[in-house]
């Protein structure tokens, strides 16, 4: 029997994850008291021999008993059981925003501010996060992207490295993305904005792509950028980083940055050891302002 412990920060998407795992054929039990976990395993083996995959939701509501989870997991593995711990995380800012939007109470909030409750929860769950087999940061994941990550881990049996890379184009005149880990300035390249027939188009159009990539400096930049990313990512993975945002900026975020972000994304897409997505933050802002 394969047993998956689903845990993590409240508000990071545990309930959604449990529903997705159920759709993938897991027998799911949420908020199970930790001391009952061995009983659930024994019960499943004795009365439900056809159950091959079980997912159990465990979170901070278990109180002090959550400290007993690792000894229980160790005992299960020593008996030959296939057990994995999936930890769902998100940034403090995102968690606060989600609680304010849903108007739900954090399980540790009591009369404290939600920020204080999140800090206390992180402290209580630190051990589980360190021992987790998989960590998914849902701060910037769409529901379908979370589903894809879960399928990669639990259905496709792909080698998952706990890192999700976002390639993000932006315009400097709208501000540098606050969640950037790396920021690259491509304003040194010729600007299609000053070519009248190219100005209305974007970096997703062939004309802009040909114009930008026709510059020798653009090709050199892409080669050096690819080498840098290939060097950094294995080191980020070994250090336990689970989110990497690479921001590519030009003046307005419509032409050069979009083109180069697309090219970097294309070059990295062949690597299957980490999740990858692309976003163009400011691509339509000039059009919106023109209305």
From TrEMBL:
Query: Where does the RapZ-like N-terminal domain start and stop, copy by copy?
Result: 1-156
Q: Does the keyword ATP-binding apply?
A: yes
Molecular function GO terms recorded: ATP binding; GTP binding
Q: Which UniProt keywords apply?
A: ATP-binding, GTP-binding, Nucleotide-binding
Q: Which InterPro entries match?
A: P-loop_NTPase (IPR027417), RapZ-like (IPR005337), RapZ-like_N (IPR053930), RapZ_C (IPR053931)
Q: Which residues belong to any copy of the RapZ C-terminal domain? A: 164-283
Which sites bind GTP?
A: 59-62
The protein's name is RNase adapter RapZ
Natural source organism: Agathobacter ruminis
Keyword Amino-acid biosynthesis in the entry? The reply is no
Residues recorded as binding ATP, renumbered to this chain, are 8-15
């Amino acid at each position: 029997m394969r047993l998956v412990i689903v845990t993590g920060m409240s508000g990071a998407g545990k309930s959604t994850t449990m529903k997705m795992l159920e759709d993938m054929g897991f027998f799911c039990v949420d908020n199970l008291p930790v001391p009952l976990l061995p009983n659930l395993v024994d019960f499943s083996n004795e009365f439900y021999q056809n159950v091959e995959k079980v997912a159990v939701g465990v979170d901070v509501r278990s109180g002090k008993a959550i400290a007993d989870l690792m000894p229980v997991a160790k005992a299960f593995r020593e008996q030959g059981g296939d057990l994995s711990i999936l930890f769902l995380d998100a940034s403090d800012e995102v968690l606060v925003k989600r609680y304010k939007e849903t108007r739900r109470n954090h399980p540790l909030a009591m009369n404290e501010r939600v920020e204080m409750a999140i800090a206390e929860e992180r402290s209580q769950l630190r051990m589980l996060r360190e021992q987790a087999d998989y960590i998914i940061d849902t701060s910037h994941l769409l529901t379908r992207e979370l589903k894809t990550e879960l399928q990669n881990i639990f259905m496709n049996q792909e080698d998952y490295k706990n890192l999700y890379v976002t390639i993000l184009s932006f315009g400097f005149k709208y501000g540098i993305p606050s969640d950037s880990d790396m920021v690259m300035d491509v304003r040194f390249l010729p600007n299609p904005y000053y070519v009248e027939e190219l100005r209305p188009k974007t970096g997703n159009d062939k004309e802009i792509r040909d114009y930008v990539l026709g510059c020798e400096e653009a090709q050199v930049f892409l080669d050096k950028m690819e080498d840098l990313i290939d060097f950094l990512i294995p080191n980020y993975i070994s250090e336990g980083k689970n989110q990497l945002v690479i921001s590519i900026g030009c003046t307005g975020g419509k032409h050069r940055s979009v083109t180069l972000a697309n090219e970097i994304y294309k070059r990295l897409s062949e690597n299957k050891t980490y999740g990858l997505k692309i976003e163009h933050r400011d691509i339509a802002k000039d059009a919106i302002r023109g209305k």
